[in-house]
Amino acid sequence: MHQERMDLPLIRLATVDSTQAFLRRQAHLGFCIVLADRQTEGRGRQGNRWESAAGAGLWMSVALPSPSGVAPGLLLQRAMCAAACAMDPGGGVLGLKWPNDLVAWKEGLLVKVGGIIGEQIGGRLLLGLGVNLTEAPDLPGRAIPPASLKELGLAVPQSTDLALHIAKSWNDLALEIQPPFRWPETGMGLRWEDGQGVCLGWEPDGRLKVTTAEGIRRLSSGDISSLR
Q: Which residues belong to any copy of the BPL/LPL catalytic domain (predicted)?
């Protein structure tokens, strides 16, 4: 049975350390959306810094009722796929990089457009999303460089409307949404911090199945910080 979709109240902030940290501190706000024009201490997966310049992107977090029966890794993948559908309704540009990054192909290279984090505290699921809308930060040396929706030729919606659309799509994460493409694909060679192998596919619980010289491994998002 699917959850009833809620219209959540939206709180807009000019500047905040991070929308995720704000919601973590403000438990009394209950279920809501927090949208910031600028973050001073935005963080991505495993504490990586996320550049959050004013007006350049979408920086938001949403507090929802904690869903049941969905593996944490799969939960974030479904949330990111739902966000991709909101930003790319034609479904021809944005895809999912394991474990939960928003990516696209630009001139034959894979580029990163956004990322998502999540945590369950009490009865609340806190989802934090950062997306480069009109410009991407200059981050030299990245194996997968950043890019923006504008660079990719996608329409850039007004941030408030986009945040409301995405938050509504997150009301029912029991729904399985397939991205236009997944990276890595089955058969692709991979490297990470402590190993290398070949992708055997994405598991139903969100893990990545790989074969290595030592045998088959199932990677979870906490196992590695850089997959290339």
A: 33-128
